[in-house]
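Hey, resending since the last one bounced:
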Amino acid sequence: MRICFVCMGNICRSPTAEGVMAKLLADSGLADRVTLDSAGTGAWHAGELPDPRTRAAAERRGLELGHRARQFTRHDLDQFDLVIAMDRDNLRHLTLLAGKRDHPAVRMLRSFDPTAPAGAEVPDPYAGGEDGFEKVLDQCERACEGLLAHVRGRLTA
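The structure tokens again:
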């Protein structure tokens, strides 16, 4: 199974979700059955490491984020079983790339969090303070737990 997490610049939210999910997969013994990636809807930060504040928050929780930012392309839609958007703008961009309103492989990350309200987003922490990066990690951890259950179900089906 192949999963790609998508945010705007691929330096805060999507690499965080990728790192959280990688740890969950490793801890559950499924890392060899799932390939993860992340990308941005824009190419502003292509080739860059995640934002230093993102990396620092992740390191405090034992996560290592070594991903280099890249832009998501139409071709990527055919390469992944699931494409996970962080917010409605990302989702809109992905569905426009898909050429139809609902692409079956495109979902919002927080749709996997049973405690999140319908349509809940992972807010972009880029222009805010340190607490925003911790909040993103909290939301990614809860949603990725649900995503892990979804992945387990798909792998055993």
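The CA atoms of residues 3 and 82 lie 5 Å apart.

Sorry for the duplicate.
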